[in-house]
Amino acid sequence: xxxxxxxxxxxxxxxxxxxxxxxxxxxxxxxxxxxxxxxxxxxxxxxxxxxxxxxxxxxxxxxxxxxxxxxxxxxxxxxxxxxxxxxxxxxxxxxxxxxxxxxxxxxxxxxxxxxxxxxxxxxxxxxxxxxxxxxxxxxxxxxxxxxxxxxxxxxxxxxxxxxxxxxxxxxxxxxxxxxxxxxxxxxxxxxxxxxxxxxxxxxxxxxxxxxxxxxxxxxxxxxxxxxxxxxxxxxxxxxxxxxxxxxxxxxxxxxxxxxxxxxxxxxxxxxxxxxxxxxxxxxxxxxxxxxxxxxxxxxxxxxxxxxxxxxxxxxxxxxxxxxxxxxxxxxxxxxxxxxxxxxxxxxxxxxxxxxxxxxxxxxxxxxxxxxxxxxxxxxxxxxxxxxxxxxxxxxxxxxxxxxxxxxxxxxxxxxxxxxxxxxxxxxxxxxxxxxxxxxxxxxxxxxxxxxxxxxxxxxxxxxxxxxxxxxxxxxxxxxxxxxxxxxxxxxxxxxxxxxxxxxxxxxxxxxxxxxxxxxxxxxxxxxxxxxxxxxxxxxxxxxx
Length: 544
What we know:
Luciferase, domain 3, GMP Synthetase, Chain A, domain 3, 9-stranded mixed beta sheet, 16 helices, 29% helix
């Protein structure tokens, strides 16, 4: 079975039930009715506030795009890139590529023109699907994309260098093309986050996708009645693989275009969402808005919301403890993963292990994990080593990069580059990225541990700890702190707060500034190093 078979099954079993809802809150109606009532009673042209499609619509749209690709000469194994913002078209296009026997190549919507060109070339893409937000960037490079034979534009006012998806799709057959697929066929190329230079192309087979679906449904027990609220970008493995749990059971999903706290809470209320996946900043923003009185929970119907889970980055225990005080009936979970292991789920906390908040958990469904020492051998419990994972979701390779592949794939094991330790109960705690470890005066500092401590201060919205060059110690730890908008914080107060840390772990420099994060919520530490290492440190040295 492959992931496209699940879509076909849902179209047969639940043809007229809602599969996907798109919410675009920037076109919010002025009257205080539910968003669903608005879309049913006041349809307007030019204001795509709420759209929905059934499972049969989904299947037929995917089939139409598959057949369109085939009419343009698409062959099994061809690489088709997707450069779209989240929308109701995104997933049917993705599945259409798979149904055509081709390889889907989702691209980060923040890529510059040069990065788009690099990725299209690296992945050998012969076709591209894109939206209006990217016209300018593609105009700059379209003359250089000689290998890209066809471009399909999704939206109004199609540019001259592309073909209109909207105009052609209605004339394509809605019947599925007869292209047999197996779990061993190539399915997708995902690009790494690119925080260390140009991203790597990560090749996955269909077995990775179907295993991600099985893993997600096993971890969170989705039923047909569950409604999943999806906010993160679909180009990333995280959002899509969590949605695969809904695909397994034919459950409805809501694509929310925007992450404002009131939008998230209202979407959960109006659409009766039961599962919401958040990033750390969004969860913090919701709690802060509640604290400031900007969100009154009594205004919403949130009884259906049963699970809040977070992934994509280390989760501060203080945040979850705070969340469960506000939402005591919620189950909480966290999933660890990376694009090389088809996203979340290779390590999994589990909804019944809230007493282990701070851990990323144990091996996920169908996965094996171990902590390796510097020689690649299993490290004793309690000692820090590199987290390694093994399972059906491990990538095939870094596409066209044999050297990089050999560095992380050793036999069946994927060496993640994340430093971790295992406690006496077998729960794994993420310590830090291997490349982010700070060595100061011969001592190893793990920034995540310091960040978790500082983030517990009620005036701190976000924090990142990086190493800065130091003539005497080699490196020192610097804490970049983003203060909550309604709070104040001084260097002296941070210094006093940090006296509870062991002396060698205390940051020696404090910088008050915004924390840059990528679309999946990860702190962009290379960007911070570029600013503060190359540009010179403007900070107060703390006398320890």
